[in-house]
Amino acid sequence: MTTYLDIFKSSKTLIEKYGINKAYLVWVMGLYLDYSELNELADESLTDDTNDKKIDFIRIDYDNKKIVFVQGYFSERKIDAAPSNKASDLNTAAAWLISGSIDDIPSPLKEIIKNAREVIANCEIEQIELLYLHNLPESVNVAKELKTVKDHLENVLGNDSITVVSKELGIKETQYLFDEQSSQIIINESISCPAKIEFEEDGDGWSSGIMSVPGAWLREQYIKYQDKLFSANYRGFLGISKRKRINTGIKSTAEKKSTNFWAYNNGITILTHNYEKKVGNTILTGMSIINGAQTTGSIGSLDSTISLDGVRVLTRIIKCSDRTTIDDIVKFNNTCESVVEITC
Length: 344
What we know:
The protein is 40% helix and 21% strand. By secondary structure, the chain is of the alpha/beta class.
């Protein structure tokens, strides 16, 4: 089986130009950001040098209203886990991002930091992503360090309009990213949905079914799969905050007017390799929610102690095997995702 590391190591020109450590960082960030011009990405965002303030890579994504900054590590040896102290270095990186003396920051990093502070001050971003990127197995120790960094930055910002996300991109998670290039659906297992198909429609190369799924089932899928559930969705779940009023409204409706949720919400669309009708339920072979990430994430973020017995969600499932048709289905379903805010 060809792995992403095999493909990366075949990128001889990139490795010769930047060295294997920086080349790996740029190559994986190209995957993560879905950015194919790697030399351009390196020129604009790679900052890894002797005075990089622990920021190896930083990018302001104006379109998606987020800042991504990265600590990278590449090991030539096969060891059990990446060093956790490299994850904690993101604390230093975050400090320079937010408040370090701008005069002590070298160019071109200085200009990027100034721009980052400006978009934060002007409320032009909604998310800051802290990434620890390496070529080793993910570990509990690194996850703990990243959570500490995330919590600290949230406290420093004191701003619930900005979501802080921390991620470890080791060999498993990076392989998921690589697999997404060849398939829109990365959750490929068989999943039982406790709802039956009520109506079907067929088209050129696709089939679709309409059903009404329990909110509790949707929450279970979100808790289990997290962002992988939205692998074919142009936008993942944006989170719950004062600025994301639609998601807050969805969550409030599910809690306070659960029996009306089906009528108030526009529903979701699931892309699947195949579906099979059973008595009282439906078996999905693979799934990705291509429209309704905000609905799914809002329901999924509700505490497990909150009952969702009355919540039902209008759901359309589409099966298709033609890649061109799939690309069009995903494109047009994400041109304008409709989710309705209900104020309770």
